[in-house]
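User: Hey, quick favor. My workstation is busy. Could you predict this chain's structure for me?
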Amino acid sequence: MTKKLAAEFIGTFTLVLMGCGAAVLAGFGIIGQDGIAWAFGLAIVAMAYGIGPVSGCHINPAVSFGVWTAGRMSTAEMLGYWAAQCLGAMVGAGVLLLIASGKADYSLAANGLGQNGYGLRDAVTNQGSPGDYSLVSGAIFEVVATFIFVVVILGVTQRSAAPQFAGLAIGLTLVAIHIVGIQVTGVSVNPARSLGPAIWVGLPALMQLWLFIAAPMLGAGLAGWAFRVRLLTADEG
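Assistant: No problem, here it is.
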């Protein structure tokens, strides 16, 4: 279990540092929205092959919840994963803040840490939807996108699937989700990824954090249920 928790910590740390780091350090003016999307997706691919054999590379509390709902992990294991993932995300965001702060014109308030948001973007706090999308739009996107993401994860990791391609399929799905949704919420589909930056950004981001916990968990739960009742489980044998 110690190895699994260490792997989940390192994996979530890497996802936040690389994904959010692409938004903060390179951003829309350098690599653009597609570049940020690929940073998140490639981080998942790398970690899937790097730590997947140890922990399954959930690096996302919603994924662990979906796996638990599908009946593939115990409650105690899920709670341990959640703790490691959230801690990894917070440390990853903290390291990103240290790096970004080395640039003279960087401001945490003005530039943020790639935190998620909904509603009209506030010019002072830089909190809200990148494209000024509403709470309802953000909620729908996060539920549906997380559902799709976890369906892919559970589908490519079932026994009849080809395991050597699982990491690639999962990473490419995350790329597509980010290309579609960055302007809506900045894309969470991962409560730990949202928590990490929000902790350092402070109250404006923390006040909107609830959505990026509730919506991904709902979407993941629905995906897990679909596999639990064998609606999306391949017939084996």
